Amino acid sequence: MQEAMQGYVEQFAYFMSKERHKAQNTIQSYKRDVSQYIAYLDSHGITDISKTTKTTVLTYLLNLQNQGKATSTVSRTLASLRSFYMYVGESGVKMKDPTLNLEAPHVEKKLPQILTTSEVERLMEQPKCVDAKGYRDKAMLELLYATGIRVSELISLDITDVNVNVGFVRCISNKKERIVPMGHIAKDALKNYIELARGQMLKDAEETALFVNCNGVRLSRQGFWKIIKQYQRQAGIKTDITPHTLRHSFAAHLLENGADLKSIQEMLGHADISSTQIYAHLMKSKIKDVYAKAHPRA
I need a surface site. Which of 33, 79, 105, 200 has the fewest CB within 10 A? Predict the structure, then answer.
């Protein structure tokens, strides 16, 4: 009967390819998950797929968790088994689908990487205001950390979206506009770039982009990625810095210094405060680490 069960796997893979038009990588993932499940059934003396129940599937998923499999792996396995049992039912086997109404394990959000305040200081010290590029890079890094705006928002800014006298930046994302304040350091860096450097970098006086590359046109996301990686290396920072790292650091440092979640949510432009709450989890994690290191009886 094991051969018959394994035959189901091959037929299932063919079905997912020809009938459901799934990608080959997806099909291979399905086959692997289902083959491991069939092997588990065989090791427990179950040789007839129609004899499996919701308890069978749940016990298997719990077994994967007990082996230390990632929550995402267990969730993917359940998705594979759902598709498999759908095929079994459509192939004429009389049985109740044991995966119906089964909940996939909750995939916990990975806590974001943040920089320490000293790492931020070292990063900000890297751009040297000795040429137009240095002024521009200094302004971009300071503005990102001061406002927490997304990189896509940063490179989309036009010259009319910032007010360096009052100290705010206007962001438009998903057709929603928000105004974010900036501190005096970012304001000064931006003012210096606009007054002393931007004009030198422009090829066309009609260009509206706030931040331009060496060809005088709007800087790209890839261009900024290279810039921030360059300064990470120069600063000798081990934490892997992505353009989003400064946004995470902005939020975490605000929260650490007493800002409330609602205000941070508005500045970040999160539609739902649940997206902002990950920073509260980050602070709890940090407090636990501090306690574990500092308390004599921890």
Answer: 200
